[in-house]
């Protein structure tokens, strides 16, 4: 088996075990393969083995890959990096998911720029869960106002929440951060009953994230290698 597919199978196995340990339904956690900095050929290889969800951070790099991978028409592109307002058009026209919404202005631009021919863009709101200066995302008390804006825009579909946990956190701290995310999703569901997504967990912390209710894990290094 090719190395990347071998790595992907190991990650899928790890996900299934974490689901079982948490007594969660098998298959309730979806794997997003985070391909930033790796070439389109790597994405194509995994696509040929059945991987459909890919995560990218940098809009220009991603746009080049979408052109190279035009024939892989079942790819679901997940934008997981911060998006500046001058880059929203590409996201509106070519992405399936944006995980990092943190401002009403970006939501409004995406709504205006989303082509009528496409289904609504799936949106997760990013929470700065450990209140870190260096991270993007909103504070928990800003969630409901921003969510109401997204809910008012017909070309966006509010799916849930996303976070990047603190890099040097202990397992106890990780569990606190991810549990707080699950609590915030329940709060969001009081105004957005269809929000079903918790995008959290990366190569280093996916087991804890799954234990705490992640429905999407974003895994780069464990599949593609070091960046
Ligand atoms: C790069 C990145 C990932 C993947 O991280 P790994 O540690 O390589 O698995 C996940 N989420 C976001 C937001 C990222 O920027």
UniProtKB/TrEMBL annotation:
Pfam families: Ala_racemase_N. It comes from the Bacteria. The modification N6-(pyridoxal phosphate)lysine is found at residue 36. GO terms for molecular function: pyridoxal phosphate binding. CDD domains: PLPDE_III_Yggs_like. SUPFAM superfamilies: PLP-binding barrel. Keywords: Pyridoxal phosphate. Its cofactor is pyridoxal 5'-phosphate. Residues 22-226 form the Alanine racemase N-terminal domain. Pyridoxal 5'-phosphate (PLP)-binding protein, which is involved in PLP homeostasis. Belongs to the pyridoxal phosphate-binding protein YggS/PROSC family. PANTHER family: PROLINE SYNTHETASE CO-TRANSCRIBED BACTERIAL HOMOLOG PROTEIN, PYRIDOXAL PHOSPHATE HOMEOSTASIS PROTEIN. This is Pyridoxal phosphate homeostasis protein. It comes from Simonsiella muelleri ATCC 29453.
